[in-house]
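User: Please predict the structure of the protein below. I'd like the answer in structure-token form so I can feed it into my own downstream comparison script.

Assistant: Understood. Taking the following sequence of 100 residues as input:
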Amino acid sequence: MADEKSKNCLNGAGMDEADSHAAPSHSEQSYFEIRVKGQLDSRWSEWLEGLAMKHLENGEMILFGPIADQAALIGILNKLGRLNLTLRSVNEVKKSKQEI
């Protein structure tokens, strides 16, 4: 009997009908602020999905802009890693904070 219960859960029998067909609730792009140690010139912006760049006096840089989804965010973070830039922070921000 326990095996039958486990089998039903794996097949989705334990889920509500609405849950199994729910669409993702992300209708808008999320905006992110990514802070790294190191700086690049603005020519790298296109390669980094068009993110805006702000250089800080302490040798760090802030990248800001809309990122479509988690896969795109991970792609950008991987690119920064390949450039040997040290990740300081990643924050989702409200669109109104885009003035960096």
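That's the full token string. Helices lie at 2-10, 17-20, 70-82.
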